[in-house]
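Weekly structure sync, notes
Attendees: PL (lead), two postdocs, one rotation student
Agenda item 3: pending single-chain targets
PL asked that the sequence for the first pending target be pasted directly into the notes so everyone works from the same version. It is reproduced below exactly as submitted, 178 residues in total.
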Amino acid sequence: YSDFFSKKGGKVTAVDPSEKYISIANKHFSNNEITFKIASFEKESDFNIFEKKFDVIFLSDVFLYYFEPYKKMDLNPELLLIKLKSLLSKNGKIYIMDPHGVFHLQSWLNKDNPILLALEYANRKYRVTPNLEEVSRVVESANLCITKIRELKYKGKDIDKQFYSEFPFWWFFELSQK
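Predicted structure, written out during the meeting:
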């Protein structure tokens, strides 16, 4: 995504918690328009690496981990959005692309029993991704607005994944300041 945005004319600051991934990115996508930084965003002080405001903040496959963290963090989803909002320019936007609330449930389904999807979404046994109401409440609590929501579907041609095209893979949110 960093390479994509830089090719569109953006001056990109790309952040990842993995030193290995940052090293790979520097090797393959290093140019004058991309600056790579290592940060985990597990505590408020992790945001101190930024010295400027941004017109666009893009998160991919990140936000859901603040709802169900795989390790102890000082940040929750609301505080994450508040910290990100503080980094936005006046008319800046936050874009979030995360697995859809039903995405992680797909592997537990089969084409003969799709009703399991509805039951698991409302009364969860396997807590993986937030539902739309949880996301919406966190956005509201952070004093942001959801200005767009899209459900992106699988469009591949893999025969073994055609069942997936029946369900959205990704949520895409555009958040704006109030």
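Discussion points:
- The beta strands are 12-16, 34-38, 54-60, 88-99, 144-153, 168-177.
- The longest strand covers residues 88-99.
Action: rotation student to compare against the earlier draft before next sync.
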